[in-house]
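Deliverable D2.4 — example input (structure tokens):
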């Protein structure tokens, strides 16, 4: 097995990435920062490469297509940091739910895969540590694989691992994991309303961003919670500190940790932690059987039909569906399950509850969840068209309610 420096590794990738020239990079906390720095130092080594993977908002902010005029991105998840690449023709974007996207990435031809793992144990196996979402699904699928063996990636006993001998070459580093800044801002009223829909003994999934973080922080008085989520963030720490999570194996099941050093250190010694790939954490067959599964996520807009927009801000697409629909549908089907989606009623005087979405819906009206704003929360699933519209108007900022009622009356006549 060859041992390479980061500079040698990026040159080796350039030499090996023929044919499709697609290079898989892990995202989240497992982004290979040492190789990124090497590419930045020798950008010609990125010429002709197509970088693929799942790059997460708020943590993976680097645009790999910016390395060289001939570099490209193959995206399934758009973030604000990657909008310029898409607009400039340096990236392709395939709309797909997270579960499907992971399988599509794994099925595509990959010339070189980079895997970020822990140092090997006594049996020569390297743990995927806190970044186990997509990497395990790529094992054995690339023509050439480089292992980024990091002394600071904590090995997780209950999680996927790969034999060191499975790598064609390794790069050994001792470097911090990629961190995400803490979610800023408060949303106490929204969090309080959402917390009314979460009970003791529930199994909680939560997404990224300010609102899910605030809602999870409001659950510290709950008891015997479990977590089953595609990712966990610093929002998990208050639950751990409060003793709100049940003491049992796999009480925290996830595929990726994205947060700060305190979260990573805590999870590295957390015996209740189970790490698993997207094929498990986002699988409908798995999720829909979890009793009392509660998904907690956010969106940007909701219209009076119950359609949700989680991708467009004004005229610009800034995000993708991710696992939102995977979890909404599964939580709805799970015994005793609930799906919660939160949003601010207005932003800078503009209502986020609108008569009808101007862009493609991220969540259709047939999957309408519990919607929460600072003015309350309502479960839309069992409501007819008129009752649904009236309930959503009641969640809007008071200054916009009359105009929303007028718009609904006009639209109602056209149905």
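Example output (designed residues):
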């Amino acid at each position: 097995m060859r041992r390479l420096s980061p500079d040698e590794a990026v040159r080796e990738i350039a030499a090996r990435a023929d044919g499709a020239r697609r290079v898989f990079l892990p995202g989240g906390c497992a982004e290979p920062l040492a190789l990124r720095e090497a590419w930045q130092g020798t950008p010609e080594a990125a010429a002709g490469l197509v970088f693929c993977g799942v790059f997460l908002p708020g943590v993976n902010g680097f645009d790999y297509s910016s390395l060289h005029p001939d570099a490209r991105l193959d995206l399934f998840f758009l973030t604000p940091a990657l909008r310029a690449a898409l607009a400039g023709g340096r990236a392709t974007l395939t709309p797909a739910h997270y579960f499907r996207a992971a399988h599509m990435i794994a099925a595509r031809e990959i010339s070189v895969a980079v895997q970020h793992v822990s140092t090997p144990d006594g049996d020569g196996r390297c743990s995927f540590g806190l970044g186990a979402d997509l990497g395990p699904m790529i094992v054995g699928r690339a023509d050439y694989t480089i292992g980024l063996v990091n002394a600071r990636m904590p090995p997780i006993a209950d999680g996927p691992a790969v034999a060191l001998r499975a790598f064609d070459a390794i790069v050994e580093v001792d470097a911090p994991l990629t961190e995400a800044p803490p979610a800023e801002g408060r949303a106490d009223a929204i969090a309080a309303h959402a917390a009314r829909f979460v009970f003791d003994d529930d199994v909680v999934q939560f997404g990224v961003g300010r609102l899910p973080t605030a809602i999870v922080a409001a659950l510290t008085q709950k008891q015997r919670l479990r977590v089953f989520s595609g990712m966990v963030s610093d929002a998990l720490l208050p639950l751990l500190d409060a003793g709100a999570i049940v003491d049992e194996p796999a009480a925290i099941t996830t595929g990726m940790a994205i947060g700060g050093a305190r979260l990573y250190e805590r999870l590295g010694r957390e015996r209740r932690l189970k790490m698993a790939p997207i094929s498990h954490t986002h699988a409908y067959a798995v999720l829909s059987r979890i009793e009392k599964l509660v998904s907690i996520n956010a969106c940007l807009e909701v219209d009076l039909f119950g359609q949700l927009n989680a991708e467009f801000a004004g005229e610009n697409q800034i995000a993708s569906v991710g696992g939102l629909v995977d979890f909404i549908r599964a939580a709805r089907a799970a015994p005793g399950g609930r799906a919660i989606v939160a949003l601010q009623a207005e932003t800078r005087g503009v209502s986020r509850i609108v008569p009808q979405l101007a862009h493609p819906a991220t969540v259709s009206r047939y999957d309408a969840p519990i919607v929460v704003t600072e003015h309350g929360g309502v479960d839309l699933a069992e409501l007819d068209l008129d009752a649904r519209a009236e309930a959503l108007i009641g969640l809007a900022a008071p200054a916009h309610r009359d105009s929303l009622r007028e718009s609904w009356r006009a639209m109602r006549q056209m149905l």
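The CA atoms of residues 30 and 152 lie 11 Å apart.
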